[in-house]
DUF5641 domain-containing protein (Araneus ventricosus), 121 residues
Amino acid sequence: MSLPVVQPKIEELSINRNSLEKRFKYQQTLMNHFWNRWRKEYLLNLRSAYISTQPGKIISFKVNDIVLINDERYPRNMWMMGRILELCPGRDGKVRSLLIKTPKGNIKRSVQLVSNLEINP
């Protein structure tokens, strides 16, 4: 015994250009919301977790650390990861920028635009 196959009538399908555009915009909004929240919450929690595991110690970068490079010119899911090649101190002797090896070549970034990842020892 089989059940009859019910197919919707063409009139019941209300797919038109307007509804598809609305759906696409809604999905884009959701995706942007997700990436904004991920960037703000996860990356900040990652930094605070790194600090809390080493009380009294300022976030420090080491050569060969794997980092995420924050770059607002690209979508968040396209941010590059890289490996620190060199620490570049400022006039005061504190590390102010980093030379990072990426798949596209070596780049220099401020420590404010770089986040340590959990995969570092």
Observations:
- The chain has two domains: 14-55, 65-116.
- The CA atoms of residues 26 and 44 lie 27 Å apart.
- The two ends are 62 Å apart (CA to CA).
- The mean pLDDT is 79.
